[in-house]
Write a structure and sequence with these properties.
single chain, alpha+beta, 8-stranded mixed sheet, 3-stranded antiparallel sheet, 11 strands, 15% strand
Length: 439
């Protein structure tokens, strides 16, 4: 049983070693050794006795022989819970379907030593933020004994019964098949039956019969990657919507606050891109285990979960978010450039005005400061009768310069208006835009 968990958990320094050290992967081990840095890492593993694990509605008559709980974390911190159960004696299909339904739909009520399973695991992990069950579950069934013989039998009666058995297990007993219904219609859509091996699955349950133990472990690893990738896609989609809402809710005119907002949004989009690349794309191709058997199961399960389309849509959403952030950054740069231009024009105008105002008094002070015959010590410098000519000569050129500048600006404004109008005063017609064909 594979459960995605909400929360992040970095696997640095885990004392349990790699997943390849804990499970037998047989001929797949060299491939996994070379890609060990990409694989999920066990951060907690514990073997359980049959009495320690409990279901909300009992064991449905199944005899649990042993169980193991393992918490796996990817290098990006995405967490998956693996619960591996072995049954003793025979497993009736109906009882197995009920077991699968309980552990899926009531997974929050699974107990470990009389307490909720995740409460015990969170205590063992000692995390400040507790892990919680996510939305995604996948359960792999490796039948043995009579159930395996019933599924693999080539007899006419047994072959006719196989669709009903697969339907009951794959759909956890939630899709009944009547005696009069066409059993072929109830067959799981993803089925491969080679006579000695059988593989059938839906979105939530896989039935794999006739495979060697190391192949079963490889199939489980493929399912772990798919469940983890699907959880990352869902989290990325929600984060993309939250980033969009943060951009829409930002009501600020301060350039510094806008720049801070753009920085936060850009950091969030960068995380989304890393999640899509290293949390999804790294686990949805056949590079980890380049074997045809694994590739077929991976491709089939990926299509059943809709990961490929979801990945493409999420990638487009992130690209558009990036475009929106870039456009906002460009608008901010343009606004800052315009503000700087206005500031420069203001400073230039102030300097020009200060120069215009300061020069006449400077000339007058120079005149009154010289030791000349026209300056009398017994007369005030504000005596316009005596010094009116000096004041006129100091101010008249600047007044004339201001008047000439005003007249020239008015003439330029009139010429600009006349260029946009006809001789009769009506505005010039604006031609219609040309089509690409030139018509």
């Amino acid at each position: 049983m594979l459960f995605s968990l909400d929360g992040r958990l970095r696997p640095e320094g885990s004392p349990l070693g790699g997943l390849v050290d804990r499970l037998d992967f047989g001929r797949f081990e060299p491939h996994l050794r070379s890609s060990e840095a990409v694989l999920p890492v066990p951060v907690l593993a514990e073997r359980l006795t049959p009495r320690e694990i409990g279901l909300p509605r009992g064991d449905h008559g199944l005899a649990l022989a042993s169980a193991e709980v393992m918490v796996l974390a990817t290098p990006r911190g995405d967490v998956t819970l693996l619960v591996d159960c072995f049954f003793a004696a025979e497993t009736a299909p109906g009882a197995l379907a009920s077991w699968l339904a309980d552990t899926c739909f009531d997974r929050g009520r699974i107990t470990l030593r009389g307490r909720p399973l995740l409460d015990v695991l969170n205590e063992r992990l000692a995390r400040p933020a507790p892990l919680a069950f996510g939305q995604n579950v996948h359960q792999l069934v490796f039948p043995g004994g009579q159930l395996r013989r019933d599924l693999m039998s080539t007899g006419i009666d047994d072959a006719a019964r196989r669709p009903a058995l697969l339907n009951e297990i794959v759909y956890r007993g939630r899709m009944p098949v009547s005696d009069t219904a066409d059993l072929d219609d109830a067959m799981p859509p993803n089925l491969r039956n080679h006579g000695v091996t059988l593989s059938a699955h839906g979105r939530g349950v896989s039935v794999q019969a006739g495979w060697a133990p190391h192949v079963e472990n490889g199939l489980a690893l493929v399912a772990i990657g798919m469940i983890s990738a699907l959880a990352v896609l869902q989290r990325t989609r929600l984060a993309a919507f939250e980033t969009m809402r943060a951009n829409e809710r930002a009501m600020t005119d301060s350039p510094y606050e806008v720049r801070s907002l753009i920085s936060r949004l850009s950091a969030g989009v960068n995380e989304l891109q890393l999640d899509l690349a290293f949390g999804v794309e790294a686990y949805v191709d056949s590079l980890l285990i380049p074997e045809m058997l694994m590739e077929r199961f991976q491709s089939s399960l990926r299509d059943a979960l809709g990961i490929r389309d979801s990945l493409e849509n999420s990638a487009r959403m992130v690209e558009r978010l990036t475009s929106v952030i870039n456009a906002r950054s460009a608008a901010l740069d343009a606004e800052l450039a315009e503000r700087d231009d206005r500031r420069d024009r203001t400073v230039s105008a102030l300097v020009a005005a200060a120069t215009l105002i300061a020069l006449p008094p400077t000339l007058l002070l120079t005149f009154f400061g010289i030791n000349g015959t026209n300056v009398h010590a017994d007369r005030s410098i504000l005596d316009l009768r005596e010094y009116g000519t000096a004041y006129a000569l100091a101010w008249l050129p600047f007044v004339v310069l201001v008047v000439i500048g005003y007249v020239l600006l008015r003439r330029v404004s009139r010429r600009s208006g006349s260029l946009l109008s006809q001789p009769d005063g009506h505005p010039l017609p604006v031609p219609a835009p040309r089509s690409p064909s030139g018509r």
